[in-house]
Design a protein that fits this description.
The radius of gyration is 35 Å and the shape is elongated. A hairpin with a 3-residue loop joins strand 1 and strand 2. By secondary structure, the protein is an all-alpha fold. The chain has a two-stranded antiparallel ribbon. The chain has 10 helices and 2 strands.
Length: 300
């Protein structure tokens, strides 16, 4: 008799086990199509170049911001403006501007550096928002300055008057006034006699500087051509205009400084345009990185 092989029913237990094992290795998005799973995109060569450039870009401005911050803090400490007796005039100290600008620039640039290095969307969004806020403030300030250009001379006069009154009290203001008077060859606001409003140069003052003007007003501030003569303008306010004209500059600085600023309009506009382009470049690089690191998901 021919033997008959009995075929057992096909068992799919082994295949089921392998299929189950394979299912566990599938991504969550394939196991459950309703679940969205972010897949980080692979950055291309151009994206990597943009990332490196953005990091170096922000690193440069971070260093510049830290430098400005260090200069401002050093200036405040050198003048003991942070001491208990000098806290009142701290708000009007010119070095405070360096501190604020350096702190703001270094903070924003640090966020840009870390955002580019870590590919952090949060830091990059903060960087973009801060730069756009600064740009908005700059545009607003430019528009206000343009609208109030007719009052610019009065504002300039008030600022110079403040510098004149606090000439001996603030070393930074004294340096600024001396540089302006030497470079523009002027003295005082409208004339050299404006220095009578200074309590130290007034003729009723008890000190040796009474009826005098700063040595930066002198026609020849050098003694024997080599040594600076700090007393070259002593007693200039006691002289008549003709006699004083042989010692000091008679014309004021407001008119000459206004004319100098009008001549520098092109340079100021060019500097503002360069600043806007720098900020725009930083924002565009940050937006490119934000688009590159945006997660890609699979959803049915």
């Amino acid at each position: 008799q021919a033997s008959r092989l009995v075929e057992l029913p096909y068992s799919s237990s082994d295949d089921d086990d392998s299929s189950l094992a394979g299912d566990t290795d599938l991504p969550a998005a394939e196991q459950d199509p309703g679940v969205w799973c972010p897949i980080p995109p692979k950055p291309g060569t151009f994206s990597q170049c943009v990332r490196c450039l953005a990091f170096l870009w922000n690193l440069l401005f971070l260093l510049l911001g830290l430098l400005a911050l260090a200069v401002g803090v050093w200036g405040l400490l050198a003048k003991r403006s942070l001491g208990g007796e000098r806290l009142a005039p701290l708000g009007s100290d010119p070095m405070l501007l360096f501190v604020l600008v350096g702190l703001g620039a270094s903070t924003v640039s640090l966020a840009g550096c870390l955002g580019a290095l870590r590919s952090s969307p949060c830091l990059l969004r903060f960087f973009v928002g801060a730069v756009l806020a600064f740009a908005g403030l700059e545009v607003l300030g430019g528009l206000l300055l343009l609208a109030a250009r007719h009052r610019l001379r009065d504002a300039l006069r008030d600022a110079l008057l403040l510098c004149l009154l606090r000439y001996q009290e603030e070393p930074d203001l004294r340096f600024l006034v001396d540089e302006v008077q030497r470079s523009l060859q002027c003295c005082g606001l409208g004339s050299y006699r404006d220095w009578e409003t200074n309590p130290y140069f007034n003729c009723s003052a008890p000190g040796v500087q009474a009826c005098s003007v700063p040595d930066s007003c002198c026609l020849d501030p050098w003694q024997n051509g080599t040594v600076a003569n700090a007393q070259c303008a002593f007693g200039a306010l006691r002289l008549g205009d003709v006699a004083a004209g042989t010692v000091v500059h008679l014309g004021g600085c407001v008119a000459q400084l206004s004319a100098w600023l009008r001549g520098q309009v092109g340079g100021i506009v060019a500097g503002a345009a360069v600043l806007v382009l720098v900020e725009a470049a930083g924002v565009l690089m940050a937006l490119k990185m934000l688009r590159d690191i945006a997660p890609v998901g699979v959803r049915d």
